[in-house]
Amino acid sequence: MQSLEEFYQSKFDRVPENIRNGVGHFNVFTIDEYIGKNAKPLVYSRKDYFKITLIVGRNRIHYADKVIDIQKQAIFFTNPQIPYKFEWIDGQKAGFFCVFTPSFFHHFGNLNDYEVFKPDVIPVFELTDEQLENIKQVYTKMQTELASDYAHKYDLLRNLVFELLHYALKMKPTSKAEKQQANASQRITHLFLELLERQFPIEDARQRINFRSPSEFAGQLSVHVNHLNRAVKEITEKTTSEIITERLLQEAKILLRHTEWNVAEIAYSLGFKEATHFNNFFKKNMQMTPMRFREME
Hints:
Protein name: Transcriptional regulator, AraC family
Number of strands: 8
Radius of gyration: 21 Å
Pfam family, one: HTH_18
Helix content: 40-55%
Number of domains: 2
Keywords: DNA-binding, Transcription, Transcription regulation
GO molecular function: DNA-binding transcription factor activity; sequence-specific DNA binding
Domain HTH araC/xylS-type: 186-296
CATH architecture of the largest domain: Sandwich
CATH class of the largest domain: Mainly Beta
CATH superfamily of the largest domain: Regulatory protein AraC
Strand order of the largest sheet: 1-7-2-5-8
Distance between the termini: 21 Å
Largest sheet: 5 strands, antiparallel
Structural class: alpha+beta
Strand content: 5-15%
C-alpha cells in the first residue's frame, strides 16, 4: 500500500509538513504536475488515501481485477481498499485530481457509505463535453480556495468534494436498494457487507480472513442463517453465498495477478484449509486453474 507520504516523495521529492496532523489532509493537482517529463511510472497498488481524478485523454484503467477503457474523458473515484493504475493510450494527458484522507471528513459523514467508494462498484463515469466543463470548474475552485487565506477554506473544499460525489451519483439511476425505505433487511444486509469487506484487502501472506460462509457471518451477527439469507436476497437480489464468492474471487485474482505469493499462500489467506480446495473453488467459478489465470497476465 502506498502511503500519502510516499506519494509526495515519489512524485514531488518532498513531503508537506504536518501531513498527519489529526485534522486530515487535502490537496489538488493538475495531471501535468503528476505525469510530466520527470514523472516516474505509475505502479498498480493500493493507497492509504482517497482520490478523485478527472481524466482527459484516452486511458486504460486497471482497477482491481478489471480493465476499463476511457475513450475521451471521465471522472474516476478511488479508495484505500482497491488497487489501481492508469495506462495512458495516446499523447494527450490532461485533467485534475485531488487527494484526501478519511480524517479530513471526520464529523462530516462516512465516505465509504457513498456508492462510488464501495468495492463492488466500477467508479468510472465517462463525461460529455458539457459535463467535463462543469467538473473542471469545481477543480478550479478547489485550487483557488486552497491558495487563499480564507479561515474556513477547508469547509469549502469539503463541500466541493461532495459536489463531485453527488454530480457523479446523479449521472446514474438510483439502485433498487436505495429506493426502499430503511428496514430490518437493509440493516442486516449492510452489517453483513460491512463485515465481509472489513476482511479485505489482504496485504500480507500471514493475514487470513475469518468468515467465509453464510453461517459464519450469521453467527458473528447473532442472527439465524436463514434470516441473513432472506435479507441479503431481498436487498441485493443475490444470495449470501454468491456475494461471498464474488468477493473472494476478486481478491484471489488480485493476489494472483499482482503478488508473487504461491497458490498455497493465497489459499491460506483466503481461508481455505488446503490449496486443493482453493484450486477447485477457483476452477469451478473461473473455468480455469489459478496458475492458468496467472499465466494469462
